[in-house]
Structures are given as structure tokens and as C-alpha cells.
């Protein structure tokens, strides 16, 4: 992605670069993640105020207020590639996940395979991720993240050098335990499989169930969970720490659970998720479950035509 070659130290440097690239631009925290320390600037005024706001948020969140600048793509898709790399130069990708459905740069729904992604583009993105990881001599589990514009041109944005929240999506379609593989890599073992042995099967989708009120601009909803009834059945997986009586604290991330479904194709996966969401009952705190139910009945989402601004245009208030 076009942007600064290093950190932005001075306001005048940011202004000069923004004029070269053309607005809008994106201010990003160098130590950031999860959308914190990020601001979109559409002119000189919002760039100046955004720099200060991003630095302050980054300092509070990561104890590091350094930021850099990127060209901002309007309405892109967010496609990421899961990789594994051992200490002996072996690198494999475990295909891609589509993470376009998000609000404030925080992902709400992830799925694999990415819908309506041409096979040629899918292979190019996955190959680029492997090339990047090999060139960097990286070893660990990790995720290479890309943005794809309306013309199917893709841009690298960052590597998340860790296991991510959405890793179960990849586990379901490949049958590979990513956490186990990460531990084995850390212990100095070689990868026990090759790229050709990694087979993508079916479609997996994950919903992040957060203690937030979508009707109130995703306001956090801490409190005691008085009722917690979860879905199950073939192809349904729930990763959670919550039990009835659990108190959702106000101090940490609002994630309560990850609801994952895996089915032979996307049509069946969508139907399975609708059923699972209808059976998921939570009382005592507000959650994103009602929003997820609406999303999975939305014609644009069902057609696989969403981008990173879909939620803001369709549901988000304020």
C-alpha cells in the first residue's frame, strides 16, 4: 500500500505525504491492532486532529504512540491468509479468510473460502503471503493481511504475528489444529505436512459474539449474565469462557464467544449459522447476536458482496 516509509514524526511530513498520495489517507499506530490508534483523514484539518488522536489512543492502548501513514482505500474487501512457518525454512499457507464484515476496524464475521474471490486472485494472494514470510525469515503461526479493491487489485497491509480470534475458521476447513502447530514450531519441530497435503474442505463461518449494544452504536454492555443457552449440533462449534452468572467486566475486550459453523458449502453454512443464532439466548447483558441474525438474512451479505464499510452504511448509528 502506498504510504510512509517509516514513522511520522512531524506534522509537516504527514501533510506533505498526504498531498503526494492524495486524500483520503489512513493514520495507523505502529504497535496497534484491533482498530486502535487508527484514523481516516480526508483533508488537512482532519489529518492534523487525527494524528494527535491516533497517537494518544495508541499510547494509552500499547504504551507506544508512534504512527505511520497509508493511502486509504474506500470500500475494499479485507482478505487475510493464515500461514505456518517453522525454523527450517518450511512455509505453508492454509488458504484465506474473508474478514470484510467489521465495524471500527473490529471484525464481526469471518469466513473461508472468501465468497466471489476469483481462483486466480486467491492463488496470487496466498502465494504472496508465503513469499513474504519466507523473505522475512519468519517462524511461527501468523496471518498476512491484504485489502482488495473493486478492480481485484490487492495490497499488503500487515502481518499479525500471532494466533488470531478467527483461527477456528481455518481449523474447520483444513482440519489442522493451529494452536498445536504453533506450540510444535516453538518447540523446534519441523512442519509435519507439505502445502500439497493441505486440503480445503467446505465452508466455515465465525460470528464474534460481543457484549455490546448494536442499537446504541455498539456501546459496551458489562454486567452479570443471568441466562446463557448455547447452540450445538453437527457442524457447530462454540469457543467461550462464559457460564451463567459470569460477570462481564468493563475493563477488557467485549468478546464473549466465538460461534463457528462448518458445512459442505456456503449455502448450508449460512443456514446452519441462522439456526445456531436463533438458539443462542443471552440475558443480563446486551450482545451482538440480534445484529448477527439480521446480517445473515441480508441479501447483500448472502450474495457475498460486502466490503469493510458495509456495517457502517447499513446498521451503525452515529
Name its key features.
2 domains; D-amino Acid Aminotransferase, Chain A, domain 1; 17 strands; globular; alpha+beta; Dna Ligase, domain 1; 318 residues
Please state the overall shape, judged from the principal axes of the Cα atoms.
Answer: globular
The total count of strands amounts to 17
CATH topology of the largest domain: the name is: D-amino Acid Aminotransferase, Chain A, domain 1
Please compute the radius of gyration using only Cα atoms: 20 Å
> Terminal Cα separation, in Å?
29 Å
Instruction: Summarize model confidence as the mean pLDDT.
Output: 95
How would you characterize the largest beta sheet? 8 strands, antiparallel
Q: Report the β-strand fraction as a percent range.
A: 25-35%
What is the domain tally?
A: 2
Description:
- With 318 residues, this protein is an alpha+beta fold.
- It has 2 domains: 11-71, ATP-grasp fold, A domain (Dna Ligase, domain 1, 2-Layer Sandwich), CATH 3.30.1490; 75-318, ATP-grasp fold, B domain (D-amino Acid Aminotransferase, Chain A, domain 1), CATH 3.30.470.20.
- The protein is built from 9 helices and 17 strands.
- It has helices at 11-21, 44-62, 119-135, 167-174, 178-186, 266-279, 289-295, 299-302, 310-314, and strands at residues 25-29, 38-41, 67-71, 77-85, 91-103, 106-112, 140-148, 154-160, 203-210, 212-213, 219-220, 223-224, 227-229, 236-240, 247-248, 255-263, 281-283.
- An 8-stranded antiparallel beta sheet has the order 8-7-4-5-6-9-16-14, sandwiched between helices. Strands 2-1-3 form a 3-stranded antiparallel beta sheet, with helices on one face. The chain has a two-stranded antiparallel ribbon with strand order 10-11.
- The model has no long low-confidence stretch (mean pLDDT 95).
Amino acid at each position: 500500500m502506498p504510504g510512509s516509509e517509516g514513522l511520522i514524526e512531524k506534522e509537516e511530513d504527514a501533510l506533505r505525504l498526504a498531498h503526494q498520495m492524495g486524500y483520503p489517507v489512513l493514520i495507523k499506530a505502529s504497535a496497534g491492532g484491533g482498530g486502535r490508534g487508527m484514523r481516516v483523514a480526508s483533508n488537512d484539518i482532519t489529518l492534523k486532529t487525527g494524528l494527535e488522536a491516533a497517537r494518544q489512543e495508541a499510547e494509552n492502548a500499547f504504551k507506544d504512540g508512534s504512527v505511520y501513514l497509508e493511502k486509504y482505500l474506500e470500500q475494499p474487501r479485507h482478505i487475510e491468509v493464515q500461514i505456518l512457518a517453522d525454523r527450517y525454512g518450511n512455509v505453508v499457507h492454509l488458504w484465506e479468510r474473508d474478514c470484510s464484515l467489521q465495524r471500527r476496524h473490529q471484525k464481526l464475521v469471518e469466513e473461508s473460502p472468501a465468497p466471489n474471490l476469483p481462483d486466480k486472485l486467491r492463488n496470487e494472494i496466498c502465494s504472496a503471503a508465503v513469499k513474504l514470510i519466507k523473505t522475512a525469515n519468519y517462524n511461527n503461526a501468523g496471518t498476512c493481511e491484504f485489502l482488495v479493491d473493486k478492480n481485484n487489485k490487492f495490497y499488503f497491509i500487515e502481518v499479525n504475528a500471532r494466533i488470531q480470534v478467527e483461527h477456528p475458521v481455518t481449523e474447520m476447513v483444513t482440519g489442522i489444529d493451529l494452536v498445536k502447530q504453533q506450540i510444535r514450531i516453538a518447540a523446534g519441530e519441523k512442519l509435519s505436512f507439505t502445502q500439497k497435503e493441505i486440503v480445503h474442505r467446505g465452508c466455515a463461518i465465525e460470528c464474534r459474539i460481543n457484549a455490546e449494544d448494536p442499537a446504541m452504536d455498539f456501546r459496551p454492555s458489562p454486567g452479570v449474565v443471568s441466562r446463557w443457552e448455547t447452540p450445538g449440533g453437527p457442524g457447530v462449534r462454540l469457543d467461550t469462557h462464559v457460564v451463567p452468572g459470569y460477570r462481564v467486566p468493563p475493563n477488557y475486550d467485549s468478546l464473549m464467544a466465538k460461534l463457528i459453523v462448518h458445512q459442505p458449502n456456503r449455502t448450508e453454512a449460512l443456514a446452519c449459522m441462522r439456526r445456531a443464532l436463533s438458539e443462542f439466548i443471552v440475558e443480563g447483558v446486551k450482545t451482538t447476536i440480534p445484529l448477527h441474525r439480521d446480517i445473515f438474512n441480508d441479501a447483500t451479505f448472502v450474495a457475498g458482496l460486502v466490503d469493510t464499510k458495509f456495517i457502517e452504511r447499513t446498521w451503525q448509528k452515529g
